[in-house]
Amino acid sequence: MARTLNPQLFGSIESSVVKVDASTQAQVRKMRELESQFEIVNQKIDKWVQILEGKIQQLHTNQKNLSEQIKNMADGFSGQQASILSKLTERRGVEAKTQEIIDRHNQLVQNFNVRMTHVQKVTNEQEMKLMTYQATYDEILREIRALKK
Question: Total structural domains in the chain?
Answer without folding.
Answer: 1
